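step=encode ok
step=design start
structure_in=
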């Protein structure tokens, strides 16, 4: 897979992407990262990329010319690659979208700065807008890295254990179940017996029950969009009864 990032801070993106799972994916040839700096495509000696907004107001707006030139340069080798603008006004990025992007050969991410980009860039060049949450950041670099990380985890061979990606939160619409490791007891808190006994059916049942229960506690909105099967409904009811009884 190839990902192109249009950013005023290419060093930041490349440095952050060089670590962990993304770094290994790049080293192993699973992920190809290219960055494009709009400052390299300006036409004035000061390499300016922003200007005051029409109508007044605080902040600056990224100009069309350098952004559009950088976009066109990135698209020269693959015009069909979708261009995604990271914006608080975009659709919410989630695991479903990460899986969809992981199925592409290439996509381009546009990281804005200042008050954002000239709206005509969105009208003329952008295929989709994505948001990583209902808050405002200083720029689109961190959202771009977030999207890249979520997508990279889904690439075949990116993780040491392929099952890890299939058991993450949100993969099946639920939050992840709790995880434990040695020692068995810390400050009076023990690892649940179901995880120690070695019975795989008990382990599977416990994990499913905890995932359902944790989602009910922390993200009930996710349950509203799911159709639970009979076993899942039984496990969720058990969890709720135990929770409400103080167990």
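sequence_out=
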């Amino acid at each position: 897979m190839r990902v192109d990032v249009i950013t005023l801070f290419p060093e930041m993106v490349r440095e952050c992407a060089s670590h962990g799972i993304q770094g290994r994916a790049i080293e192993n040839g699973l992920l190809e990262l290219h960055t494009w700096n709009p400052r390299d495509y300006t036409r004035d000696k000061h390499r300016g990329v922003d200007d005051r907004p029409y109508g007044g107001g605080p902040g600056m707006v990224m100009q069309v010319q350098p952004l559009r030139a950088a976009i066109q340069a990135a698209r020269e080798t693959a015009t069909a690659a979708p261009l995604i603008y990271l914006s608080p006004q975009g659709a919410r990025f989630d695991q479903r979208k990460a899986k969809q992007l992981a199925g592409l050969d290439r996509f381009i991410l546009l990281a804005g700065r200042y008050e954002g980009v000239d709206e005509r860039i969105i009208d003329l060049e952008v295929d989709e807008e994505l948001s990583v949450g209902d808050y405002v950041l200083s720029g689109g670099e961190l959202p771009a890295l977030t999207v890249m990380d979520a997508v990279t985890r889904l690439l075949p061979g990116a993780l040491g254990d392929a099952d890890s990606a299939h058991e993450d939160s949100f993969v099946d619409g639920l939050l992840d179940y709790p995880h434990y490791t040695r020692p068995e007891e810390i400050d009076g808190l023990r690892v649940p017996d179901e995880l120690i006994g070695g019975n795989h059916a008990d382990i599977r049942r416990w994990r499913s029950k905890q995932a359902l229960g944790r989602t009910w506690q922390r993200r009930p909105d996710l349950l509203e969009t799911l159709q639970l099967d009979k076993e899942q409904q039984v496990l969720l009811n058990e969890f709720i009864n135990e929770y409400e009884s103080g167990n």
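step=design ok
step=annotate ok -> The two ends are 47 Å apart (CA to CA).
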